[in-house]
């Protein structure tokens, strides 16, 4: 079973973090939601105190639902991709899905193969240099330029194991993911896709997610943009939490 903890009271939300993070990396986003909701904070495979290092995206989805049960699921980046798999495989448990900075996969096989090779090389480098040095490079990416030191949750990320993170890259990286765009037409749950206004790539992908899911009968799909970049829920936690709360209220 994946390691997790529960905070707050109310309707249940299950939170699935991004790569190199863990259940402790939600910052003020948790504070903004815990007054109204019960939050299940999960360490995904290879992260935090969870094992299952070699779980692929479908297996990770199964493990996530095992601890989350029937709930609204919220996933950021890698956690959003796992959430999409969970929603497709476990519609009885994933009642609603909100994703932040997520994609349904890379369309072109050659591009997927190149990304898979790049992720494998990145995993090898991670094992060679260790987690702290890897995070120096990872957090220097323009994707995370808007994060304050506190929001970057560096100490919590450093608690992750190098072997777990490397296995996650190889098993749950975007290069290993078969594209789900066609499958989204069968999604029956309400979907909210959120992206930072400065994150142009994931703004386009979020809009595409909503368009693909919106073709399903009875599947309300909504795209929402919040000022910020890729980790917008850490840059503007109350704005993102407010968007999710408003969406749930409307449903």
Can you describe what's shown?
It is a single chain. The chain has 251 residues and is an alpha/beta fold. It has a single domain (4-250), classed as 3-Layer(aba) Sandwich (Rossmann fold), CATH 3.40.50. Helices cover 43% and strands 16% of the residues. The chain contains 10 helices and 7 strands. It has helices spanning 28-33, 57-68, 78-89, 109-129, 131-138, 154-158, 162-172, 200-213, 232-235, 237-250; strands spanning 4-7, 12-16, 38-42, 71-76, 94-100, 191-196, 221-226. Strands 1-3-2-4-5-6-7 form a 7-stranded mixed beta sheet, with helices on both faces. Helix 4 (109-129) crosses helix 5 (131-138). The radius of gyration is 16 Å and the shape is globular. The chain starts with a strand and ends with a helix.
Biggest sheet character: 7 strands, mixed
The CATH first-level class comes to Alpha Beta
Mean pLDDT, as a whole number? Answer: 96
Written as H for each helix and E for each strand, in order along the chain, the element string is EEHEHEHEHHHHEHEHH
Number of helices: 10
* Total strands: 7
Judging by the overall fold, what is the CATH architecture?
A: 3-Layer(aba) Sandwich
Distance N to C terminus? 31 Å
- Give the low-pLDDT segments: none
Structural class: alpha/beta
Q: Biggest sheet, strands in spatial order?
A: 1-3-2-4-5-6-7
| Number of separate domains | 1
Spatial shape: globular
Tell me the name of the CATH homologous superfamily. Answer: Alpha/Beta hydrolase fold, catalytic domain
Please bin the fraction of helical residues: 40-55%
Radius of gyration: 16 Å
Classify the fold: give the CATH topology.
Rossmann fold
Strand fraction: 15-25%
């Amino acid at each position: 079973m994946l390691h997790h903890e529960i905070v707050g009271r109310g309707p249940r939300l299950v939170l699935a973090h991004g790569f190199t993070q863990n259940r402790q990396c939600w910052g003020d986003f948790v504070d903004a939601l815990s007054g109204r909701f019960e939050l299940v904070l999960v360490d995904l495979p290879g992260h935090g105190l969870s094992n299952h290092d070699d779980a692929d995206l479908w297996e990770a989805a199964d493990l996530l639902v095992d601890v989350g049960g029937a709930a609204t699921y919220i996933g950021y980046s890698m956690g959003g991709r796992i959430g999409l798999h969970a929603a497709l495989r476990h519609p009885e448990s994933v009642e609603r899905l909100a994703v932040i900075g997520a994609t349904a996969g890379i369309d072109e096989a050659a591009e997927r193969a190149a990304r898979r090779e790049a992720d494998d090389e990145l995993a090898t480098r991670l094992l060679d240099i260790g987690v702290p040095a890897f995070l120096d490079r990872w957090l220097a990416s323009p994707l995370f330029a808007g994060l304050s030191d506190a929001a970057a949750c560096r100490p919590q990320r450093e608690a992750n194991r190098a072997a777990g993170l490397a296995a996650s890259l190889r098993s749950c990286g975007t290069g290993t993911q078969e594209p789900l765009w066609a499958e989204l037409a069968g999604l029956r749950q309400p979907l909210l896709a959120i992206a930072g206004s400065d994150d142009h790539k994931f703004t386009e992908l979020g809009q595409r997610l909503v368009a693909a899911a919106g073709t399903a009968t009875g599947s309300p799909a909504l795209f929402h943009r919040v000022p910020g970049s890729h980790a917008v829920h850490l840059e503007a936690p109350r704005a993102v939490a407010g968007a999710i709360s408003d969406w749930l209220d409307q449903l």
